[in-house]
Amino acid sequence: xxxxxxxxxxxxxxxxxxxxxxxxxxxxxxxxxxxxxxxxxxxxxxxxxxxxxxxxxxxxxxxxxxxxxxxxxxxxxxxxxxxxxxxxxxxxxxxxxxxxxxxxxxxxxxxxxxxxxxxxxxxxxxxxxxxxxxxxxxxxxxxxxxxxxxxxxxxxxxxxxxxxxxxxxxxxxxxxxxxxxxxxxxxxxxxxxxxxxxxxxxxxxxxxxxxxxxxxxxxxxxxxxxxxxxxxxxxxxxxxxxxxxxxxxxxxxxxxxxxxxxxxxxxxxxxxxxxxxxxxxxxxxxxxxxxxxxxxxxxxxxxxxxxxxxxxxxxxxxxxxxxxxxxxxxxxxxxxxxxxxxxxxxxx
Length: 348
Known about the structure:
It contains 12 helices and 11 strands. By secondary structure, the chain is α/β, with parallel strands linked by helices. The strands form 3 sheets. Strands 3-2-1-4-5-6 form a 6-stranded parallel β-sheet. α8 (191-204) packs across α10. It is globular, with a radius of gyration of 20 Å. It starts with a helix and ends with a helix. Residues 2-17 and 35-50 have low confidence and may be disordered.
């Protein structure tokens, strides 16, 4: 996990040259946590919008803007609020959004603008001057310590959708800081990878039957693993073994193709819009999202991993049962162990 981070900086990160902007963000968060923003007196604003499908995207970096544009393009929400938490003047993408007046999009620096959102998407991510992987994550935790209580205060019934890096850890942090039920705190997880995986199986490898119940689960990055929610029952043990071996070969080919696909901001934005659509419209569609994995696959710690879940207006409605596979369970347990060890070193 550490080596992977050092080799390639996470998507939707602030570059090291953005230290000034990072300081502005930390300063603004400090004001909130010190009570300089009067949340109670302003929490009643925007109540007339409660009947709308309103969402808030926190963070005006490339990913945040990509999420706004993807949600707007799919016409998923009646209103989208983009929270730009830096104290500087509008610049870059946020300025362009204002210039070209994207319909139903509001740009704000005030948490009260997020009031009564049904989904809050978190895209903020910090590098700052951190030197180690743990320092980077702790810096993100410090940001979330101000952000999560604020958005949770204004939108107490919202679903929190986390896209910040590393998504498993930051989803856990969001859950702890918000005190929301586990069903209403999820991470983008392997939704994008799962959709790509099935596309590759269906369109490139012509294995449509396999693609139907195929998922990418576990931890984002190199430790993700393919799995299935059901399997065809063979006539005998020999046929079952042959079918499993054949499926494994096809899955390995698909995963090799998948490795060559990067996760750029616009592609993650489209994935976020897909998840928001399922939540707001109560589609009861299955997605591979980061959810609390405790109790699954003999995992006993409070960690979030990508697992196939049915999503609706209340977030995760139920977890879909996976086909039993000792190798998959072993990989999930290994990921859970490393993530839990990392979480134990953080200060919430």
